[in-house]
Write a structure and sequence with these properties.
The chain is of the alpha+beta class. The protein has helices at 2-12, 31-42, 87-91, 105-118, and strands at residues 17-20, 46-50, 58-59, 62-63, 70-73, 77-81, 97-100, 123-124. The relative contact order is 0.17.
Amino acid sequence: PEIDEAIKKAVTRGVQVNLLLETIDKKKGDHFYRGARRYLEDFTGVNVFQWPAENRPQVGKNVASVHAKCAVADGRVAFVTSANLTEAAMDKNIELGLLFTDGPVPEKMSGHLLSLVDQNVIVPLG
């Protein structure tokens, strides 16, 4: 709930929020897809992207996963973490994160996401 509230407040302040979320559940359910769709349905002004199955390499019988956990602000600040954006990760687990407040990392991370969008590797969730 705290993360949802922070996203809503950011959008209210005029922040452009882009989310790349996992949409494929390897257990063949729709848990991840429903979670990602929730941001389209419940959050006005949030851009939600997915990595479609047809754009992913095969890994055995499955496809590769969206496993990145990071946040970038204004191409100047970046947070890279082991934590999933779940209640357990935020409140219970031992996780580790790195905050970059200087240097080239934030801009490179932001540029990488935008280049994946430009190349249609990741696409808007619809």
